[in-house]
Amino acid sequence: MSSTQAASTAGSVVPAEPGAPVGGGVDREFGVRARSQRQQIIRRFLHNKVGMSGLVLLAIMLLFGFVGPLITGTDYALQNREAQSVPPGSDGYLLGSDAIGRDLLAGLMQGVQRTLLIVAVFMVIALPLGLVIGALAGYFGRWVDATLMRLVDLVLTVPLLVVLIVVASNFPELRTPQGVGLILGLFGWLDLARIVRGQFLTLREKEYVEAAHALGASDQRIIFRHLIPNALGSIIVWVTLAAATAIILEASLTYLGFGVNQANATSLGRLVSDGVQAASTRPWLFYFPGGALLLIVLAINLIGDGIRDAFDPSQSRVRA
């Protein structure tokens, strides 16, 4: 399932129950405190076993990548010529070492850090681009919509991986974690733009938008105070799906020789790429990084499923 199709199923923010306060409050008739829309969404997510499992798994990976180095104190750049290709559990190497004597455990920790850095840079660039372009196209329509969407369609005619390879091959200085995240972000906002446009085309016809127009609200206020909050479910689901996709694309780029290529800096994708050739003789160099990569992608996808269910109006409502 593509990120566009999956995110479109999230829908808009669940409407409040008739008579219930939008921001939460006390129901005077029954004397009980009614939950706001936000509280209901959070409560549904916290009760979603799939989403919480993904959140716990992601938290474990974050602790492993960012707290683990402080505990072990091992530097991945350190090479031990007397401990080359050591199998797991030997000579003090819990997960073994590579061909030049670097600790694979330290490499995995650094790989998790660099991979999540790539995702963060990707999100900082792709999220605002997709949100703004999709909002402008969906809200104003007409020639603005036609111009922006034809631009999106033009870029989408070329496979994304091909575009990334061409850019990475012509700008080798960008083959760092930050550079790879930049490349992914510049071409990874297209699905979000189409999702936001579709949501805005529907939401701009709602009564509360017409009321805001009648009261003299500016276009900027309507977009940021009324439309984006009601499209938040689809946007959040896209964020989780796109983060997982960015990790896979980074690994694919690195495997093809156009990803992270910096001395003493690595990512999970690069560790997997380096370990492929040694998978038959030194399987720990391939399967451990591959397993860590799959765990992060799995955790993000589970969180996305949980968020989608929390925003889905068809889910059972939480009692006030």
Question: Taking strands numbered 1, 2, ... along the chain, how are they ordered across the largest sheet?
Answer: 1-2
Strands, count: 2
| Alpha plus pi helix count | 13
Q: CATH fold name, please?
A: MetI-like fold
Mean pLDDT: 80
> H/E series, N to C?
HEEHHHHHHHHHHHH
Main CATH class? Mainly Alpha
Termini gap:
35 Å
Poorly predicted runs are 8-23, 316-320
**Rg, nearest Å:** 23 Å
What percentage of residues falls in helices of 4 or more residues?
55-70%
Q: Beta-strand level of the residues, as a percent range?
A: under 5%
SS-based class: mainly alpha
Please outline the major beta sheet. 2 strands, antiparallel
Q: Globular, elongated, flat, extended or rod-shaped: what is the shape? A: elongated
Q: What is the CATH architecture term?
A: Orthogonal Bundle
> Quick one: CATH superfamily?
MetI-like
| Total count of domains | 1
